[in-house]
Amino acid sequence: MADEIDALLALWKDHREADRQTENQRATLTNIIIVVVAAGLGFIAQTGLRTSMLVVTLPMLGLGLYGALACLKFHERSAFHVGQSKGLRRKISSQFPALNIEAGLTETSRAQRTRFPRLRKVRSYMVWVVLHSAIAVAGGALSGWIIFS
Questions:
Q1: What is the pLDDT of residue 68?
Q2: Would you call 66 exposed, middle or buried from its count of C-beta atoms within 10 A (0-12, 13-18, 19+)?
Q3: Distances in Å between the alpha carbon of 11 and those of 53, 55, 74?
Q4: pTM value?
Q5: Rounded average pLDDT over 133-143
Q6: Do the Cβ atoms of 135 and 37 come closer than 8 Å?
Q7: Cβ contact 5:91 at 8 Å
Q8: Closest Cα partner for 134 from 26, 31, 34, 21?
């Protein structure tokens, strides 16, 4: 019995660590994109919007689109690992009903819903997708301004 629980706990821990790694990768990618875009915007601010700045604005559009797509993929991977973790947690909970793991989680979720009724509906991955999409829109808008002005 102890070997089974140790195996379940090890699997649970692996999936939680994989989920954390996915979030770290998303954060790192977002930070890199923000630094590159900020440097590009600084360069544009110093030199002005001219045709030669398309080498900055078009990659900005690409980075924003890439970042949004990557965030969606990171969310997909995270959802996989969280789903696996939940299944393993339920299995552990069923083998140790006296711990009341599920009841505790249900109560915490209920309190969270009461405390943050609207904010709970906002998905964190969508915050990141919107940020990257805004970068893409800014790159597209600046490129359009350069081309059509």
A1: 98
A2: middle
A3: 50, 47, 20
A4: 0.91
A5: 98
A6: yes
A7: no
A8: 34
Residue 123 region, left (φ>0) first, then alpha (ψ -120 to 50), else beta? beta
Helix, coil or strand: residue 48: coil
The C-alpha R_g of the chain, in whole angstroms, comes to: 22
Q: Report how far apart the first and last C-alpha atoms of the chain are (Å, whole number).
A: 73
User: In terms of residues, how long is the chain?
Assistant: 149
pLDDT in tens, 33-62: 999 999 999 999 999 999 999 999 999 999
> What does the alpha-carbon distance between residue 114 and residue 129 come to, in Å, rounded to a whole number?
26
User: How many CB atoms are located within 10 Å of the residue 108 CB?
Assistant: 10
The predicted pLDDT at position 140 comes to: 98
